[in-house]
Amino acid sequence: MAETEPHSASSPEDETSPVPVNHNFMVPKKEICMVPDMGKWKRSQAYADYMGFVLTLNEGVKGKKLTCEYKVSETIEKLLVLLGTLDRWIDETPPADQPSRFGNKAFRTWYAKLDQVKMQTGVSVIPEDKAAAAPEIAVYLKESVGNSTRIDYGTGHEAAFAIFLCCLCKIGALTVDDQLAIIFKVFDRYLEVMRKLQKTYRMEPAGSQGVWGLDDFQFLPFIWGSAQFIDHPTLEPRHFVDEKVVNENHKDYMFLECIKFINEHSNQLWNISAVPTWSKVNQGLVRMYKAECLEKFPVIQHFKFGSLLSIQAVKP
Q1: C-alpha distances in angstroms, 218 versus 38, 48, 85, 191, 281?
Q2: Helices marked H in the chain — which ranges?
Q3: If we measure between CA atoms, which residue out of 232, 217, 224 comes closest to residue 179?
Q4: Taking the model in full, what pTM does it have?
Q5: Cβ–Cβ < 8 Å for 175, 60
Q6: 304 has which bridge partners?
Q7: Are 228 and 253 in contact (CB under 8 A)?
Q8: Rounded distance, CA 84 to CA 107, Å?
Q9: Are 41 and 32 in contact (CB under 8 A)?
Q10: Using one digit for the tens of pLDDT, what is the confidence trace for 34-70?
């Protein structure tokens, strides 16, 4: 796997400076309608902000375990309550008895409840003085759990959740002190809920890469999970294919949690196990994420752009 261009560490505040008091929020809408529009996306402030957010968090978790100590703010606690609500609704909405194996229709019943969560987001997670941001930010939360028509889920939905968190940083609801909790508490809990959704309602993978993909549904936890291993004294990339290593360490490392969940290794994962260092793995995964997710029209055509995730070109 080739290396990425070097990235200097920065804080979420560098990439997502808080919006001014008189900011005009707007309900996000689709902007990428045809393949030629992809150039607009690559040049956009949204792309720069999103990659900046992903890479900043990547820098923050280097060498740290899921079980390490970190600050848990009030906003983080509120986000966990929100995700707990989504989880409870799965228990309250059992799969429908239907002949088709995939795409259980009960998912649509579960999904229909999300408008309540959108209200809850505005009331509980967003500071009062930024309440005007709620309709804009809540769109990304709703986009992050899958598609109710196709009953599928993929890396575009996962990205919507990361964008939701990025927007909370932009309005100041989350701060630089929340970096570790964003991944280790909130994103990790989000993954748990999404895995439960995928299994309960037999969701189809959206835009699966088949044998060339890492995992049919997720990508970001492989990036951030590999960063956790950088400079680990004993565990090397070749070790993650060992079931004993996975079972003994998955509670500390997001990457191994992913391996434990998918339970079988894709071709791409076997390739990763041959890379000599976690640093190289991490750089290669960032490149792969850009190429296989962020530069693919079938994924980006569903993205929505507003005032916080702007389609406007980056100012020179």
Answers
A1: 22, 21, 22, 8, 17
A2: 12-15, 38-43, 45-60, 74-92, 106-112, 114-120, 134-143, 155-170, 179-181, 188-200, 220-228, 243-249, 254-262, 267-273, 278-289, 297-300
A3: 224
A4: 0.91
A5: no
A6: 30
A7: yes
A8: 17
A9: yes
A10: 999 999 999 999 999 999 999 999 999 999 999 999 9
